[in-house]
Amino acid sequence: MAVFYSGVALFLLLTLVAGLWRVLQGPTPADRMLAAQLFGTTAVACLLLLAQAFGRPHLRDVALVFALLAAVTAVAFVRRTWTVREEDDAAD
Fold it and tell me: What is the 3-state secondary structure (H, E, C) of 12-33?
């Protein structure tokens, strides 16, 4: 079963190539941010798979920290990028 988990983790790492391409070529900042979120989600999934495959429960804690950091990063990006300006409120 460890070979299966390792193979799935390797497949997930290969999907990051598509995400890296989107980060580099993304037409909008939102596309780039979603691709960066893909990195965080894939890292969490890979760590959970490797923790199960090799019997290393401390990797689950690292995966939890990555998940929290990814959520905070997404919120920070949204607050910085999509702020409502006072002129826009006055126009509505």
Answer: HHHHHHHHHHHHHHCCCHHHHH
Does residue 23 lie within any of the structural domains? yes
Overall domain count for the chain: 1
Residue 87: both structure tokens together:
């002129």
Secondary structure tally for the chain: helices H, strands E: 4, 0
What is the value of pTM for the model shown?
A: 0.73
Q: How far is CA 28 from CA 22, 41, 59, 67, 81, in A?
A: 10, 20, 34, 24, 11
Instruction: Count other Cβ atoms within 10 Å, centred on residue 45.
Output: 18
pLDDT at 85 over 70: no
Residue 77 maps to a domain? yes
Residue 81: half-sphere exposure toward Cβ, Cα within 13 Å = 12
